[in-house]
Amino acid sequence: MSDLHTSPSGESHGSVSSYIIGFVLAVILTAVAFGVVVSHSLSPSGTLTAIAVLAFVQVLVHLHYFLHMGNGSEQRWNNMCFFFTVGFVVILLIGTMFIMNNTALHMMSR
Question: Is the pTM of this model over 0.85?
Answer without folding.
Answer: no
